Amino acid sequence: MRGIWNLTHGKRACGDLHYRSSLSLKGLKSTNSSWDSFRPKSISSNKVPSKNSIYILSIPITKKHSYIHCNHKRGFVDAGGRNTLSVMSKIEEKITQVVGKGWKKISSSDNRLNKSITKLVTGLLETIPYEENCLRSFPSKKHMVRYINEEYMTDDKSQGPNSIIQSQLEKLSVPAEQLDPIPLYHPTFQQPSVIVDQLRSFREHAYKIHLKRAIGCALGIPLTLPLILLPVVPNVPGIYLTYRLYCNVKALVGIKHLDYLISPSNELDQQTNRQESEKGIDIHSLKHINIQQLTMFDDVYRIPASQLSLHAEDDLILSEEAVDRFCKALDLPELKNDLTKAIKQEHYRIYGSAYNPRQ
């Protein structure tokens, strides 16, 4: 994986890295804003969240850029709610499983052609901005699993599961305000304002980018159909464009849901939000997200506060060793490749050269 990210992909990398630059410059405002004097009453916890719970992580790569991940699986919902999944959602799961098995078969093959295809596709995948994976980790709003708060569950009038798919709210007559906010965990050294600014950047600027890319992939797929007539060579361009179309659509769905999560939920807050849109999002108006400090992050990074203050905003503060400790501590091995890719891409964006962990 390390050998793939090299200067031979420089042109593709520069094109995709422009995506991150546009988000950084347009969406992430200077810290000299109304947030500077804001110090939220953040809840600190040393308890590692369960892998089988719903939460969001902010994993700083630099002081200004984080890998945002939503830990969410449909299996979290009670058995009764699983039957409410849409037909399209179930088809998506089946197709994803079939494609995954097919890719595993090709990538593990000793055939020379399959090896070349694997190398080419893997190289292309390495150039996809890691922010896309962040957005894809957020499911659609109607398929999001949410927990009902304890006060409502202890009411004699309420009976049923304590976790539901959001599309069930109306059917089960559960008020939206009775949903528990989703915890968003971050290190103690990271200001919540930085996280909120990045989330707003996703909402405000990533949508147009992924919409444009999705349209481009959809237009390109028919052009690859003649390759199906070739009996030996598979239609790799068509398969890749189809996959990229799927990824961009998933990112668009994630952005739309993120817009709901970080938007005020009542009319008064919405009016205040419109009046103060230039100042940023007030953390107290986030009805669906509860930002909390997680002290175990500090053990993962192992960077003293005195040393951290010496780092510039664009210095890498996440290492591969820290990634290993993080994935082990939270039992999330599936994030290792994505976080490693994020480190490589941020290194290239900052220093303009390939990442070498030995340096």
TrEMBL record:
<protein>
    <submittedName>
        <fullName>Piso0_001279 protein</fullName>
    </submittedName>
</protein>
<dbReference type="GO" id="GO:1902600">
    <property type="term" value="P:proton transmembrane transport"/>
</dbReference>
<dbReference type="Pfam" id="PF10173">
    <property type="entry name" value="Mit_KHE1"/>
</dbReference>
<dbReference type="InterPro" id="IPR018786">
    <property type="entry name" value="Mit_KHE1"/>
</dbReference>
<dbReference type="GO" id="GO:0006813">
    <property type="term" value="P:potassium ion transport"/>
</dbReference>
<dbReference type="GO" id="GO:0005743">
    <property type="term" value="C:mitochondrial inner membrane"/>
</dbReference>
